[in-house]
Design brief:
The structure holds 2 protein chains of 2 kinds. By secondary structure, chain A is an alpha+beta fold. Chain A has 8 helices and 13 strands. Helix content of chain A is 18%, strand content 20%. In chain A, strands 1, 4, 5, 8, 9, 10, 12 and 13 form an 8-stranded mixed beta sheet that branches. Chain A has a 5-stranded mixed beta sheet with strand order 3-2-11-6-7. Chain B is mainly alpha-helical. Chain B has one domain. In chain B, helix 3 packs across helix 9, helix 3 runs parallel beside helix 10 and helix 9 packs antiparallel against helix 10. Classes of the chains: A alpha+beta, B mainly alpha. The interface between A and B is medium-sized, with 36 and 32 residues.
């Protein structure tokens, strides 16, 4: 039947009409709350509105463990609370300063123990393999976590194409260090450029993601545009942002945090609730973006919940020694 | 200037106005909680902001005496107690928000955390030292302790200032982010340095006096 929604004859019953005094008092209450909110510390977090980037869709990944059912962190939180020291050490610095980063043209050079070294342009890398969406937990060594839908493909896709030699035991990842674009490089907190590394079997694991987007969009600059690594079972700092070079090497490569504080940060840095950071406990974490000040911290999971997928990589290793 | 400044400090509205101003940071944070504008990690923002305000009130409190001696505005002394109590107030909120929002009020975790993290230990020590000062801030306590002993007890504030600075320094040391640490450090160094300068100059004066009389 093609009956219009409002037939003109059905009127609300009197008891359902909000009395004038009630709605007027609600209006006063709303006005009062607006006045209070004007007082609030809005200015401290000006980027709460999420940046709108170009679409970068990915098909739902079929890699085991690649899609957690947990609720993704709001995009606004994931793009305004970042550790990206090249743009400053405060969590709000990257969102404030990273807009100056030029992500095109962009190349990544692949060198060292490979049969086909070369320089890849960002557009070639985007077309190298089909894009997948993967919803990973992200655990920061500082004790907070997020859930982020990334877009990219397994790093192994790239590794296979450059054909590592038998001497390639490790990969080193070198990230951009450009003083003209990155105000944080003036700080001596780390040696620049920021470098990270993986054992080759870690790099070849299907969960290790070469990442170009998140939330169905290209990566915002503050999240490591135009491409970054995401290694979901390791603390966040293992996942280098704005990559410019991948080096295949025979010896375990230097990594920035273990150079800065070797007693606090090891090469492996797997998420592990049983091995504390020397200065704080790693047993629990605060899930961000849930908006509740009183929410209890949650227990941190071994290998960030990816033990079933990656546990065998570390069989027989003393994880207290190889932290 | 002194007469006019004196009138302002002495004005009966000065204390209530200062009291209201000192509550503004708290109002700002409460509004932030209500409106969800404390950012993605509201607990962290809250705890750190309360720590910042504790340090600011500590600096203001320590500035009263040098300012009084420097300007000759004796009436400034009447504002010192309120500023000191606000320091203790924000320190208590800082500690409680850490205990509740960071530690979930699990006392075993708090004890382990205090033992594990030197900067928490130092901050807690400063807070514990602050408690007897806050508790003996009223006139009857001064009378009961006697002015000399009361003053001796309240010299603890210098140790508290040094512990608070160490707490702040260690907290920022993880990221070697020492810009603000240097600013607060310089302010506290100046305020304590002024006192050392006054004391040693006084001592030298008395020493000179002593040597003159010995010769005489």
């Amino acid at each position: 039947m093609l009956l219009p929604e409002d037939r003109g004859f059905v009127h609300p019953v009197a008891s359902e009409i909000t009395p004038r005094t009630v709605f007027e008092s609600r209006r006063r209450w709303l006005a009062a709350m607006a006045a209070v909110s004007a007082l609030g510390p809005r200015a401290a977090w000006p980027q709460a509105a999420a940046p709108k980037g170009a679409a970068l869709p990915g098909s739902r990944s079929t890699v085991p463990g690649a899609i957690t059912m947990e609720k993704p962190t709001p995009l606004g939180d994931a793009t305004s609370y970042n550790n990206f020291y090249e743009f400053g050490t405060d969590k709000s610095d990257p969102a404030e300063h990273a807009h100056a980063l030029k992500t095109r043209p962009w190349t990544v050079s692949v060198e060292g123990e490979v049969k086909k070294p070369g320089t890849f342009g960002i557009d070639d890398l985007l077309k190298l393999a089909p894009m997948e969406e993967r919803v990973y937990r992200l655990r920061c060594v500082e004790g907070w976590s997020m859930v982020i839908p990334w877009v990219g493909y397994s790093l192994s896709e790239l590794v296979r194409r450059v054909e590592p030699t038998g001497n390639a035991k490790y990969l080193q990842f070198v990230t951009l260090a450009d003083r003209a674009q990155m105000p944080g490089l003036r700080s001596s907190v780390l040696d620049w450029p920021y470098v990270e590394g993986l054992r080759i079997d870690e790099a070849m694991h299907p969960l290790t993601l070469l990442t170009f987007g998140m939330y169905g969009q290209v990566l915002p600059n503050q999240n490591g545009a135009p491409l970054r690594l995401v290694v979901p079972w390791k603390y966040g700092f293992k996942s280098g942002k704005s990559l410019v070079k991948i080096r295949f090497v025979e010896q375990q490569p230097a990594t920035s945090w273990s150079l800065a504080a070797p007693q606090e940060y090891g090469f492996y840095s797997n998420v592990n609730p049983n091995v504390d950071h020397p200065r704080w406990s790693q047993a629990t974490e605060r899930r961000l973006g849930e908006g509740d000040l009183f929410a209890k911290k949650r227990p941190t999971l071994m290998f960030n919940g990816y033990e079933a997928q990656v546990g065998q990589l570390y069989a027989g290793m003393d994880l207290k020694k190889h932290f | 200037m002194p007469a006019r400044a004196h009138a302002i400090v002495q004005h009966r509205a000065t204390k209530p106005v200062l009291f209201a101003l000192a509550l503004l940071p708290l109002a700002w944070l409460v509004a932030g909680i209500v409106n969800h504008t404390l950012g993605p990690n509201p607990a962290e923002t809250l705890i750190r902001s309360l720590g910042d305000w504790t340090l600011r009130f500590l600096c203001l409190t320590l500035a009263v005496t040098p300012l009084r001696q420097w300007t000759g505005l004796a009436a400034l002394a009447r504002l010192r107690r309120m500023l000191g109590l606000f320091t203790a107030f924000y320190a208590a909120l800082h500690f409680c928000s850490y205990a509740v929002f960071d530690m979930g009020l699990v006392w075993g975790d708090i004890v382990r955390d205090v033992a594990k993290r030197p900067f928490i230990l130092v901050g807690s020590a400063a807070f514990v030292l602050l408690l007897p000062l806050a508790a003996t801030s009223f006139n009857r306590a001064i009378k009961w302790l006697g002015a000399a002993r009361w003053q001796q007890l309240h010299r603890c504030v210098y140790a508290i200032a040094l512990l608070a600075m160490l707490h702040f320094f260690w907290m920022r040391a993880g990221k070697r982010n020492f810009g603000e640490v240097a600013v607060y450090g310089a302010i506290i160094a100046a305020l304590l340095g002024w006192r050392i300068f006054k004391v040693t100059r006084g001592a030298r004066y008395f020493m000179k006096l002593g040597s003159h009389s010995a010769k005489g």
